[in-house]
Amino acid sequence: MEMLAALPHYGFWFLVLLTVLVFVHEYGHYIVARWCGVRVEVFSIGFGPELIGRNDKHGTRWKISAIPLGGYVKMFGQGANLLEGEAGKAMSAEDRKVAFDYKSVWRRMAIVAAGPAANYLFAALVFSLIFVVHGKDVAAPIIGKVVAGSAAEQAGLKPGDRIVSLNGTTIGAFEDIALIVQPNLDQELTIAVERDGAVQTVQARPTISVEKDAFGDDVRLGRLGIESAGKSTRIEFGVGESVYQGVKRVFDVSGLMLKGLWQIVTGVRPADEIGGALRIGYLSGEIAQIGLLQLITFAAMLSVNLGLVNLFPIPLLDGGHLTYYGIEAARGKPLGERTQEWGFRIGIAFVLGLMLFATWNDLVFLDVIGKLRALFT
């Protein structure tokens, strides 16, 4: 009963975050299409029957549709619809001037890439604003304690050592260490340490620790086995430094996501860490109860995730379209319709399969089956 009572809360915050991120993504496509002279016919939040909408002065129908799980921008003259089997239509000279398919391949690539780019820009803006308002809590990267039997002890690290760099990445704060160590479950780290005024290099392989996160999910983390020598202090940033830190955070998050995905593919991490809409909905509701700042940060993280996933070279995603256009630019002509059609079919099968797999993981993660069974016993 508690699960059913909480559904409106989780559903509300999930739809709030999803609507914002979908709008940002689709607006990226929309605005660059307009800049490139393409007529945009529809801008929809959601799919299916229209609930409410209006036409703007440019002839675009802005609407909210009944199924609030995504959205789309429909551009005039975007070729034969391979998903629905529609044939291309003959166009007048005036129509060709504002048709998507009659723009240069570079403009089409810019329009397609604009969606993921908008998600990245949104995330960078959010992170930058957080740094402007909140600053950053940091502690010097000085070791205060080395855990007995840990990877740090085996590498010869000692209290008082200052970690200068990890795998060539400069360490400016103790908090930066975890960003590199925790995802490294399968490789040795090169650690540059300052001791008694001299810098020396040691090698350490983080131990793998399975821990519960704030939401009760098992996560595998790399651990060196060190603790900070001092308390964190808050550093205030100006606008310029905040923007730099915000953009850097976007790249850091992207790198961590790619590394985590590679570890899942290679078996270092279990595949049950792949989550879908149900898990995002659950996390949205949980984080909304923690605080507004945490919810906004989560939205920025999801925006990076959405932008990154859409750049994967999978037909049906933006990255798949970019791959097709890249081949067209190299060949001087597009791929044949049949090749593209088969690519889209494979892409649909892959995406649907991944969605089903992620949904099953979510059902297990949330113990939905067990909770439903409890309702009838």
N-to-C terminal Cα separation, in Å? 12 Å
Strand order of the largest sheet: 6-5-7-8
Broad shape = elongated
Count of structural domains:
2
Per DSSP E runs of 2 or more residues, the count of β-strands stands at 12
Unreliable spans: 80-87
Number of helices: 11
Mean pLDDT: 81
The residue fraction in helices comes out at 40-55%
Major pleated sheet:
4 strands, antiparallel
Supply the helix-strand structural class: alpha+beta
Topology as H/E string? HEEHHEEHEEHEEEEEEHHHHHH
Percentage of residues in DSSP E strands: 15-25%
Q: From the alpha carbons, calculate the radius of gyration and give it in angstroms.
A: 24 Å
Structure description:
With 377 residues, this protein is an alpha+beta fold. The strands form 5 sheets. It has a 4-stranded antiparallel sheet. It has a two-stranded antiparallel sheet with strand order 1-2. The protein has a two-stranded antiparallel sheet with strand order 3-12. 28% of the residues are buried. Helices cover 51% and strands 20% of the residues. It is built from 11 helices and 12 strands. About 2% of the residues have low confidence.
